[in-house]
Amino acid sequence: MNTAAPPPRFTSQREALRAAFESLPKIELHRHLEGSLRLSSLAEIAAAHHLDVPAHTTETLRPFVQMMPDSPYTMEHFLSKFAVLRRFYCAPEVIYRIAHEAVEDAAADQVRYMELRFTPKALSRLRGFAFSEVIGWVCDAVEDAQRGRDIQVKLIVSVNRHESLIEAEQQIQAAIDQRGRGIVAVDLCGQEPGFPANPFAGMFRDALKAGLGVTIHAGEWAGPSNIRYAVESLGAARIGHGVRIFEDPSVVDLARDAGIVFEVCPTSNWQTGVVPSLAQHALPEMELAGLRTTLNTDDPAICDTTMSGELAIAVDGLGLDLPYVRRAILTAAEAAFLPDVERAALVGWFGRALDSVGIPRTASQGEDSLG
């Protein structure tokens, strides 16, 4: 695990590339609501609701809820940020506000399609809200936030593998009951080590039967056997992270043959200690192996990143080219949890949009430059 102070993520060249990518139409499949809160809003919420939190201003709160340059880059330290953030979900209007602002912020970064995932248990724990109520508040906020903005947002309900099975089943049933409100999939996340996925198999099969998609966090903090189980036993069409897949070549073959799509989050993978440095991230190797990959922020507030920033890191930090950026965006569109006709329309729209801004299909089409 990486515990030393890391070098800066954004050199001047990478910063310039990030700025150039800000005007690019983008898509994101893996963003957690609970990791997308504005620091300024946290300070206002703490003051308005007299919360018992470790700090009360934007800058004094920052080290408690965001990974800092001198932070230990470990799973434990990363997850500690969520423990603090859970203290803020104190009222329906707060949950509505943070969901609304997450959509606003994605739209401002020119994300045109997003699947935003959230964990009802995390949002309900502080005040004991019913899962169905929490889901309703998030749905209301996301519906409202899309109005007047050039973004389409769908929702994924996540459950944590290290928490109560009974509550996980209740959350998934609530997602099934409200699937007509933009909920398109369910997700299993949380602490991989020591918490196998097999107890959740029945509830995920129920979600599939109800017409919801399945994406599973796997191969992040534990090995590729979790990827195999997610695909073969949970019905996963997508894998969150999956960067440890090369520890078992047979799982690489399985994922490639099945067309599994990987929701890769480079900055998050570095900050959680999954990879020792950005330069050693597995994404280029995944691309060479013929795996279908996408780029995502995971937790943009905790990681202090944006989709534009992740694209810049892929190109300048990992050595991938603009045709890869195009493939990643179109792969994400092809993997969206949408009905076939809507998905085909989304792919077509992004293809035309990327053509219009000059993102090449192949390296031979021209220099790797924007504009």
Q: Can you describe what's shown?
A:
The chain has 371 residues and is of the alpha/beta class. It has one domain (12-365): Alpha-Beta Barrel (TIM Barrel). It is built from 17 helices and 8 strands. It has helices spanning 12-21, 39-49, 58-65, 75-85, 92-108, 120-124, 131-146, 165-177, 201-209, 225-233, 249-258, 266-271, 283-288, 300-303, 307-317, 322-334, 340-356, and strands at residues 26-32, 111-118, 152-160, 183-189, 213-218, 238-241, 261-264, 292-295. The chain has an 8-stranded parallel beta sheet with strand order 1-2-3-4-5-6-7-8. It is globular, with a radius of gyration of 19 Å. The protein starts with 11 loop residues before the first helix and ends in a 15-residue tail after the last helix.
